[in-house]
Design a protein that fits this description.
Elements lengths: L4 E5 L4 H12 L3 E6 L2 H11 L3 E5 L5 H15 L4 E4 L14 H29 L2 E6 L13 H22 L5 E8 L2 E2 L2 H4 L11 E2 L2 E2 L1 E2 H10 L7 E4 L3 H10 L1 H10 L1
Parallel strand pairs: 1-2, 1-4, 2-3, 4-5, 5-6, 6-11, 7-10
Antiparallel strand pairs: 8-9
Helix pairs in contact: 1-2, 1-7, 3-4, 4-5, 8-9
The structure holds NADP nicotinamide-adenine-dinucleotide phosphate.
Length: 258
Amino acid sequence: MNPKVVVITGASSGIGASLARTLGAKGHRLVLAARREELLKSVANETGTDTLTVVTDVTKRNDVEHLRDAAIERFGQVDVWVNNAGRGTGKTVMEVTDEEFQSIVDVVLKSTLYGMQAIVPHFQARGTGLLINVSSTLGRVPFVTYRSVYSAAKSAVNILTANLRVDLASKYPGIRVSLVLPGMVDTDFHRVARTPMRMKAGERVGTAVVLSAQEVAEQIASLLEKPVPEMYIPAGAAELAKQYYQDVGAFEARMARW
Ligand SMILES: NC(=O)c1ccc[n+]([C@@H]2O[C@H](COP(=O)([O-])OP(=O)(O)OC[C@H]3O[C@@H](n4cnc5c(N)ncnc54)[C@H](OP(=O)(O)O)[C@@H]3O)[C@@H](O)[C@H]2O)c1
């Protein structure tokens, strides 16, 4: 295996922390970013590989650029950048406040733009690199109404990701851009976003099974070997998206019956 330098935002818990442990076990060198320094350092201690931690608030462009610079200074290059940091909301369209709207847009959407704009020039200079943006199935199929602005921001992440991929494709074929769309995952996300039902890995909620952060991390890790434009996790969620776009009215009527 060819060890790579991988930057992961939102690596202090959940999917990002599991991804750090998974890639560390494979011998990749890591740069982990988040705001909670102690948690970040304890994840770094569990990776078993050369790992740099950089306290970063991804809503601040300067912090994200500092993260890139610190990674390059330590390892000489970045091969993979994972925009994973994020937070949800538990408010419907009619409940969401200006403050909540702005805060979700900042942490979900602006942070992803900052990450892309920070790392892509480095990838272009090298003619190679892999960018992975962690979105959500809800950014494609907005069927959980209390996620409102979160789903809208993830939807915009999907579009920016697709636009960047197309912009780079002809001139920089060595740069790959992947979008990851997970379903329900058993992480702190649900405590922070006040999910009204239990989210335990392996348990069924509606028609889907809650995933563990480890299952999602393994799927994301597979992109380093075989990058694809988009990855639904689980893969079957692509069928949900197909049904939604085939007939939105029929889909919403079915949802109302559930
Ligand atoms: N859990 C799910 O069901 C689910 C489903 C689909 C998609 N996702 C997406 O998966 C990604 C990871 O979420 P998770 O489920 O692993 O939740 P999590 O355990 O709550 O992790 C969120 C991570 O984001 C970081 N973060 C939040 N705000 C930040 C900021 N301003 N600056 C830097 N880091 C920040 C947190 O670190 P600090 O607090 O230490 O900064 C933490 O490491 C998110 O993009 C989320 O939207 C989750």
